[in-house]
Design goal:
The chain has one domain. Helix content is 13%, strand content 53%. The chain contains three helices and ten strands; from the N terminus they run αβββββββββααβ. The strands form two sheets. Strands 1, 4, 5, 6, 7, 8, 9 and 10 form an eight-stranded antiparallel sheet that branches. A hairpin with a 3-residue loop joins β8 and β9. The chain is globular and about 60 Å long. The protein starts with a helix and ends in a 16-residue tail after the last strand.
Length: 178
């Protein structure tokens, strides 16, 4: 993510999101939808958010918050609520396109242990999110070109373990401060 470093971009996890390593974030899965043949057709991480900010020359701190993520396996897209600083929220806008690198694998152990694992890769910005980032982050021509040069935004690894929780994960949607 050298392009992010060049633009002095800061990514801050908000809501139920947390940082687990440099450039790696945990967004708790709040729901999954399984269709025919045990195929995942959708999933959500409601309440999680990532805030992208930078100091733009002459504009001060600018940014965009990406929140309440969902996966659409019919279109192979990550969707999220996108809110430019001081702007209007676009509900469930397409953020990334993805490919399924490792299809869903579900394991069951007696008496009641169910786990699932899936990996999505080749994350690329959608044209809509590319335009949102350029506008909200007030990228110069050079920084916009650096953003365009990013060929992959990494992977999404989904690890699901069915278990009782002492404290449930919040499913309240994240709403950015005005």
């Amino acid at each position: 993510m050298d392009a992010f470093a060049a633009g002095e971009l800061t990514i801050t996890p908000l809501g139920t999101a947390s940082m687990v390593g440099e450039g790696q974030y945990n967004l708790p899965i709040t729901s999954i939808t399984i269709g025919n043949g045990l195929k995942i057709v959708g999933g959500e991480s409601r309440g999680s958010a990532l805030q992208l900010t930078r100091k733009a020359k002459g504009a001060g701190i600018v940014g965009v918050t990406i929140a309440n993520f969902s996966l659409n396996f019919n279109t192979n897209q990550v969707l999220a609520d996108t809110t430019p600083s001081g702007g209007t929220t676009m509900k469930q806008a397409p953020v990334y396109n993805f490919k399924v690198a490792s299809p869903l694998a579900i394991k069951y152990k007696f008496p009641l242990s169910i786990t699932a694992h899936e990996v999505l890769d080749s994350l690329t910005l959608t044209p809509e999110m590319n335009a949102t980032m350029k506008s909200a982050l007030k990228l110069s021509v050079g920084l916009a070109a650096a953003l365009d040069s990013i060929t992959s935004f990494g992977t999404i690894t989904e690890d699901v373990k069915v278990a009782f929780r002492s404290k449930p994960v919040s499913t309240t949607p994240y709403v950015p401060a005005p």
